Amino acid sequence: MGNTHSRSQFAQPALYRILDANLDRTREGIRVVEEWCRFGLNNAQLTERCKYLRQELAKWHTPELRAARNTPGDLGTELTHPQEETRDSIEQVLQVNFCRIEEALRVLEEYGKVYSTEMAAAVKQMRYQVYTLESSLMAYQRHQKLKQASLYLVTSPSETLFNTIEAALQGGLAIVQYRDKETDDLTRLSNARKLQQLCQDYGALFIVNDRIDLALAVDADGVHLGQQDMPLESARQLLGPQRLIGRSTTNPSELDRAIREGADYVGVGPVYETPTKEGKVAAGVEYVQYAAEHCPMPWFAIGGIDTTNVQEVLSAGAQRISVVRAIMQADQPTLATQYFLAQLNQKQTLRGSRKVLSNGHPVTEELWS
Prior knowledge:
By secondary structure, the chain is an alpha/beta fold. The model is unreliable at 355-369 (pLDDT under 50). The termini are far apart. 34% of the residues are buried. The chain is built from 14 helices and ten strands. Strand 9 and strand 10 (361-364) form a beta hairpin. The chain folds into two domains: 11-143; 149-354, TIM Barrel, CATH 3.20.20. Pathway: Cofactor biosynthesis; thiamine diphosphate biosynthesis; thiamine phosphate from 4-amino-2-methyl-5-diphosphomethylpyrimidine and 4-methyl-5-(2-phosphoethyl)-thiazole: step 1/1. It is an enzyme of class 2 (transferase).
């Protein structure tokens, strides 16, 4: 096996058992991730990467190592922890298994240096590949959720903040942005942690307004930046490739720049005047029409949208909207959320059901732009 070190007769069985156990642990963890890539995401590329890693590890899992296995005599089989008994979400399942894989690969690398320097070098490279896989998987999941989302809630300070957000999530809300310009940092951090957990429980994306440090501290899905905030390139360096970055835009020039800079989504507005953006001149539905014709990424019409004007915004070409007061100040946030989603779904259904002829056969137009 390329071993360049002598092994005592006493140490060899323990070494083999360590390698055998961690090869099993790594391959099992990768298989858990692979099943989600295959059946949960239907992503052939990610599934193939998982399969490749498993097969590469199998080359090192020799009969020699398997023969050292002693399950009845393994003290570790009796050890457990309450946190291992339940998982709150698919995301947690994946996160736990990635941690298990990475820890086991480090064990294989270190003990592999005694067993086989060739194996240690190969496992080291696999560990870096797993880090990349983890980032790719998280980024893919977040972009899929973003693509599928049509209603985006931006919070405002409220004595019933958590109850309101949970009620909206119960109504089907897919994205929450925590925005609070008034409170101190300790309160913001506490609120952001609670909201992040709520969103995770309901499978929604959680975005933090402006504050990259706060987003990282609570493991948010991303940040939303205004025109006067940090440049998008700098934000990407701090956040990494796996998190989402949104950008507010108020005119075609700002929209075009956000597209060039690589924003993951944009806000388009304010469509109407709103106290949330005091002093901002309304961009109007004309800007919504421009975005509908020119924006290739997910975009959300925002600014003063409520039950009285949402149809006008949808008629201008919006397929996604963002609201603040219409839900945050609603008497029944769940019903308000369901109302907006019903309007959005109806619009998408009508658009998706339009037929165009292709070679004499009717086909459905793409639902998403």
